[in-house]
Task: inverse folding
């Protein structure tokens, strides 16, 4: 089902501007920040789709709170499907660290050295960064600690690489990211909770019922309330298996 984000034009312009800059000669990043339910995940999804349409390679992870204790779960998401492209280009110690972390090889009683793994992740991103690359993480606050440590190390050392980072986080942009990607290469985007929230509309009814959706001040999409007539409700009930006219999607 084709979808279109409406009501967030300013935020989308900022994200698209970032993608237009990638790849460049230094890492650029966008951080979608703010409280839960204001549409960060909707915008993150739209930016990821836009990156793929532009021909950029996207490494993505969408961690859940329940997975936070699973070491390297996020790293497995990011490198899923690309290990064959990066492992041959790594030195033996870096390759082994990445293989052990991602359960490709048996640890044989040895733990993964965080520094070696951080260097391995940086090297892997450098290899992939020879093309157009976007590192995308939604709900950064739920990323497991082992993955976050490796990612922080790598992003902090990718200043000369052809890559962009797209991160959505509940609350404020972490200080480590501001240090790793200083202004003006970092765009901080906070969806305005006072404006009409982000919506996903099915293509046949794109924008059609937008005027019939309201939200309480600072409520965000989680509290969006559609206004419809009794006949509209009856029609919706008769077509439960059809396309939805309006879907509100919020950050988890």
Result:
């Amino acid at each position: 089902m084709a979808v279109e984000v409406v009501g967030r034009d300013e935020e989308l312009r900022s994200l698209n501007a970032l993608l237009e800059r990638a790849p460049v000669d230094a890492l650029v990043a966008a951080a979608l920040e703010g409280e839960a339910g204001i549409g960060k995940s909707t915008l993150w999804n739209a930016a990821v789709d836009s990156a793929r349409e532009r021909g950029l390679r996207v490494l993505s992870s969408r961690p859940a709170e329940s997975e936070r204790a699973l070491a390297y779960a996020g790293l497995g998401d990011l490198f899923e499907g690309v290990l064959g492209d990066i492992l041959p280009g790594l030195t033996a110690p870096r390759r082994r660290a990445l293989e052990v972390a991602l359960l490709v090889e048996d640890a044989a009683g040895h733990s993964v050295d965080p520094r070696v793994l951080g260097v391995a992740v940086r090297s892997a991103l450098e290899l992939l960064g020879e093309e157009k690359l976007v590192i995308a993480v939604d709900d950064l606050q739920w990323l497991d600690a082992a993955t976050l440590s490796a990612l922080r190390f790598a992003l902090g050392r990718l200043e000369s690489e052809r890559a962009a980072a797209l991160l959505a986080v509940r609350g404020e942009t972490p200080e480590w990211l501001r240090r790793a990607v200083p202004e003006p290469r970092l765009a901080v985007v906070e969806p305005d909770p006072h404006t009409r929230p982000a919506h996903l509309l099915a293509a046949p009814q794109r924008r059609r019922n937008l005027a019939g959706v309201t939200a309480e001040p600072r409520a965000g999409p989680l509290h969006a309330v559609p206004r419809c007539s009794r006949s509209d409700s009856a029609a919706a009930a008769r077509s439960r298996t059809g396309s939805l006219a309006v879907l509100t999607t919020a950050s988890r």
The chain has two domains: 8-189, 199-247. The chain has a mean pLDDT of 76. Strands lie at 3-6, 28-34, 57-61, 133-137, 163-170, 186-189, 199-202, 213-214, 225-226, 246-247. Residues 114-128 form the longest helix (15 residues).
